[in-house]
Amino acid sequence: MSAGIGCRDLRVHAGGRELLSVPELHVASGRTLAVLGPNGAGKSTLLRALGLLSSHRVSGQILLDGRPATRSQMRDAIGAVLQRPILRRGTVADNVISGLRFRGVSRREARDRARPWIEALALGPLADRDARSLSIGEAQRVSITRALAAGPRVLLLDEPFTGLDSTTRADLLADLRAALTGQPTATIMVTHDRQEALALAEETALLIGGRIRQHGPTTDVLDQPGDPDTARLLGYTNLLPPALTGLAETLVARPEHTRLVLDSHDEHDDDTRSVTGTLRRTVALGIATRVDVDTSAGPLTCLHPGDVLATELPPTGGEVRVRIRHARSLNDADQDEPAARLASGTRASTP
Predict the structure, then answer these.
(1) Domain 231-344 belongs to what topology?
(2) What is the pTM of this model?
(3) pLDDT tens across 5-26, in order?
(4) Cα angle vertex 24, ends 21, 30, to 5°?
(5) Per CATH, which fold does 4-223 belong to?
(6) φ, ψ of residue 306 in degrees (nearest 5)
């Protein structure tokens, strides 16, 4: 293995139950891996095990630069950022240099080494402020800057953007991505948000039930689910089996690519395929209207633009037709032919 962090035959047990099983994983220096999974998938368990921070029974090898790592080696190598920022008393600058000070660096040198990171993460105007006066977004920015300023070989991020508003999260993601570019740091971020993975990571692993289901380049993984579980995780919550579409394989589609046919123009649109069902409910969500439809093969969820009026929607309990775009095949996620056939307007009978 090349420089970076990884594992072989990693297993984590607690209370007689296996929480995690990862045969092999490697994140190279200078690369970022997003571990994407639902709540309870084992994401934080994996992060703690890789950092030799787990309180559970762990077996297998944790590798640093291709060699089995000891706790002391890993402690010196990693920087960690948790969901909720932990700040010490003092100013923002004091908190940023605290990681370096903990490693025995003099205060003067620590300030010199931290200054570029304070500027890179846009903390200059806050440097002299009492850390206890910060918002949660500002506090998390300080935590990330402190971790980076210490020059870690490995950066572990445990859902660091949870609880931040959308603007704060977007700004921090952009600044962190820019700060990591060109750095010899192997970064692992666990998240349940695919947009965070897309913004920050070159590679993504999908973790479900303590096992990695898919792993590869982020843009490929996020758009090519391999089974119903990974499809739901990636937002492809509408499953379209052959019995519904008349095709040979199961297709999946995201709600934003699924809408009711509301007029004759929609119904005869050659760029769509449609299936029939019964309208169960509509829910106004402000920027969109959610429409739930029951079909012979299960429920579908549609998202309409928020300016659709309630009077434009069919009555609950009535038969409706649903049009679908940008579907993916589960049988061969790399093959666009099923999706192309879906978009071609080639009709099949539906129950």
Answers:
(1) OB fold (Dihydrolipoamide Acetyltransferase, E2P) (2.40.50)
(2) 0.86
(3) 999 999 999 999 999 999 999 9
(4) 125
(5) Rossmann fold (3.40.50)
(6) -65, -20
